[in-house]
């Protein structure tokens, strides 16, 4: 199991739910959550054979900033 953490610019609850729904439709086995309370608006994704670039690309295509945190 791999866990990846990303910094985003997602601000609203509705946007958060939208991003989660889109990622989940592509990767139904991933566990996805946001921490909008954090200053970095953290997106956390957990899954097997997780490709961070795919997540970043999906979120970017939706019009949001998404950067992997080290």
Provide structural commentary.
This protein has two helices and four strands, in the order βαββαβ. 34% of the residues lie in helices and 30% in strands. The protein is an alpha+beta fold and 70 residues long. Strands 2-3-1-4 form a four-stranded antiparallel sheet, covered by helices on one side.
Summary tags:
70 residues, alpha+beta, Alpha-Beta Plaits, 4 strands, 34% helix, 30% strand
Number of domains: 1
- CATH fold-level assignment: Alpha-Beta Plaits
Taking the sheet with the most strands, its summary is: 4 strands, antiparallel
Mean pLDDT: 96
> Measured on Cα atoms, how large is the radius of gyration?
11 Å
Number of strands: 4
How would you sum up the global shape?
globular
CATH architecture: 2-Layer Sandwich
| SSE order, one letter for each helix or strand | EHEEHE
Count the helices. How many? 2
Q: N-to-C terminal Cα separation, in Å?
A: 17 Å
Beta strand %: 25-35%
Q: Which bin fits the share of residues in helices?
A: 25-40%
CATH class: Alpha Beta
Helix-and-strand structural type: alpha+beta
Give the neighbour order of strands across the main sheet.
Answer: 2-3-1-4
In the predicted model, the low-confidence regions spanning at least 5 consecutive residues are: none
Give a concise summary.
The chain is of the alpha+beta class and 70 residues long. It has two helices and four strands, in the order E-H-E-E-H-E. It comes from Flavobacterium pectinovorum.
């Amino acid at each position: 199991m791999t866990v990846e953490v990303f910094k985003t610019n997602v601000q609203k609850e509705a946007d958060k739910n939208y991003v989660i729904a889109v990622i989940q439709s592509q990767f139904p086995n991933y566990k996805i959550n946001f921490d909008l309370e954090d200053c970095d608006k953290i997106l956390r994704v957990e899954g097997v054979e997780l490709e961070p670039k795919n997540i970043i690309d999906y979120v970017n295509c939706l019009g949001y900033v998404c950067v992997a945190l080290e």
